[in-house]
Amino acid sequence: MEPVTEIDNQKTKISERELPFQKVMDVRSRPRLRGEHLLDVLNEGFIRLNQWIKPGISAELNPFAQMGAVANTLFVISLVSGILLLFWYSPSIHHAYESLEALKQGSVFGQFLRSLHRYSSDGMMLFLLLHGLQVLVAGKFSGPRWLAWVSGVVLAVLVWLDGWLGYWLVWDQRAQLVARASAKMLDVLPFFADPLSRSFLTNESVNSLLFFLVFFLHMLIPLGLGIALWIHIMRLNQSVFFTTRRMSAVIFISLTVISVIYPATSAAKADMLTIPGELTIDWFYLLPLVITEHLKGGTLWVLTLVGITGITLVPWVLVKRRSQTARVLESRCNGCTQCYQDCPYNAITMMPRLEGRGRSESYAVIDPVRCVGCGICVGSCDPAGVEYPLLEPLQMRKWLDALLTDIPRGNGHSVRIAFMCAESAGGTLTLNATGESPSMPGFRIVPVPCAGWVHPLLIERAIRKGAVGVLVVSCDADPYCRKGVEWTAKRLAGERKPAFRKEKVEGVPVWHVRLDRTERKELQRIARLMTENAQLPAQNQTPQWRRWSLAAAVLMALALLTVFPSDAPLIAARDPQPEIVVSFKHPGQLVEQQKATSQKDEKLLPHMRGAATLERVRVPVRLRVWIDGREVIRKAYKPGGLFHDGISLAMETIPLTPGRHRIRVAIGDSPEPDTWQYVSEKEVLIETNHRRHVVLFDRVNGFRWY
Description:
The protein is an alpha+beta fold.
C-alpha cells in the first residue's frame, strides 16, 4: 500500500475525488500480522464480553475494560496484606507451618489477612493473563509497543516467581513439592558444590539458611515488580495506574467475601520421608508441579526458556509489516502544543526553533521510535502541519471539496459523510473508489485509522460544502488507539481543543457513535435513522434489577475463576509409589599414576623423552545396591571439582513395592573393583505407597537409615 505523499498528482489519470480511496483502501494503524484472522476472531470474543457487560455495568465498574489497572490494584492489596501478615508469620523452617496453622484458632484477623493475601495474588495473576491475552489478540504489541509487551512478560514472570516462592514459605506438602522441583532445576546449573536435592532427602538435612533466603527473595521481588511496572507504562500519556475508589472498594469487598466463605488453608506439614498423595494446588502458580516430578532438570529448563523466549519475541515473529509513522512539517507548526498534549504515547516533543524561523519559539517533533501511527495528532493540528502517510489531511480536504462540489443540489440529491474508524463496526465495509458502500446508502465513507484523526474543522468544512449530515464512528471497548475515542467525544462536545463549533453547522446533525466490530447491524440502523432525519437514539436505560443481577453474575464468575483454580486437584501422571533413595558424599582414595605424555614427546625416541612424572588422582567411588538378594544398581561416580580431584556424589532412587524387603548397600573407594570397604544391610517394612526410605552415607557418620 503506497502512502498518499508518494503519489504524483500531475501524472496520475485518477480524478481528484477518487484519489484517497483508490490508493488508500486500508488505513488501519495496526500493522499486518501473521495469523491475523485468528487473532481477530479471538478479539471479537473480548469485545462481545464487554458488550454483554456494558448495558448493566458502567465503564468505571467494568473489570474487563480496565484489566491492567485491576491487576495493579490487586498487587497493592497483596503487598499490604503480606506485610501485615508478618506480625503472625515466623520465617523459620521449624516454625513457619505452625505459625500459619495457629491463625485458625488464635487470630481471626490474621487468618483473614492470609486468605486476602492469597486470593489477591491469584486475582492479580488472573487479570495479568487476561490482560496479556487481550493485548495479544488485539495486536497491541508491535512497533513502539514492543517495550510494553516485553516488560509485561517480565512482570508476569516475576509475579509467578514470587507466588512460587510464597508457597514454599508455607512449608506444607505443596511447599515440599515446590522445593524439590526448584532443586531439580537449580542442580543443572553449576552454582552449587552439592546438589540442592540432597537437602530435601530428610527433615534433618533441610537447610534453614536456604529457607530464609527464599523468604528474603519473596520480600525483594515486589521491588522489581515496581520497576518493571514503571517501564511497562513509561511510554503512555495519562496512564491509569489503579482503579477508581468505587472500583477498588468493589474489589476489596469481593475479596473479603471470598476470604470469609472460603478461607485459605495449608496442606499437611512437609515431611521429606513422605510422598504426597492426593493434593490440591494453586494452578495460578503451582501448575508446573504437574510435570516437574516426571521430567529432568535440563528438560524443564528447555521448556521454560523456549516458552518465555517464544512469548517475548511475539512483536517480531507475528508482525509481517510495520505501520507507518507521522511527521510534523516545521514550516506549518505554530507551536500550539495541542498535539503534544493529545499524543497517547508520548511520541511528540516540543523543540526550540532556530532563531528567526517560524511564528513561535518551539515546534513539535514526532519520534518515529514511539509513534504507533494512530493519527490522533492529525485531529489536533489546526494548520494541518502533520504529514500522515496513510491518509494525508490536505488530500482529504481536496477530496471532500471535489466530491461535494460534484453533488447536484435539489431533486432529493444529498450526501452525508461518515468518518469510519478502521477498528469500528464499519472497519470491514466494502467501498468503491468514491467511498460508497451498499451497506450504508446515502453516505460517502471516509475510513480513518482512529476517530481521533478527524479534525473538527474538517467536519465544519464538509457541512459548509453541502453535506447534510456527518457521522463519526469510533470503536468502543479497549480501543486500539488509546485516548482516541475520549478525545473525539470531548472535541465534538466543545470540551477540548480543537473544539467543534456547533453554531457553525446551522442545525445539520453531527453524530458521534461508539460501535465495535461486532455491532455492524447497529451501524446500519443508525445510518438509516440519519438518512430519515430522525434523532440519534439515546442509550437504553437498563432496569435496576438487571444491573444488579449482571453485576452479581460478573462478580460470581470472577470469584469462581479465582477460587476454583487456586485449590484444584493436582493431576499426577501416576499414583505415588514407595521408594528408597541411596545417597553418599564420599571421596575416593588417592592413587599415583603416570601423567599422560604430550603428543610432542610421543614422537621422540624413548631415550630422548623427558623424565616420566607421576600425579595423584582420586578413584571414582563405586556403589552396589541389592534388594531381596537381587542387584539393582552397580555404578561408579567420578570425583567432582574442576580438576576431578574432589568428592564423589551420588543420589539414586529405586522404586519399591509394599511389604518387607532386605536391602543391602555397599560402597567402595579403592582402586580394586571388587573391594567394598563400607557395607550396610537392613530389613525395611513398606506399609504405605506414600513412604520414602533414605540411606545416607558419609565418611564421618557412616550409614544412616531413615
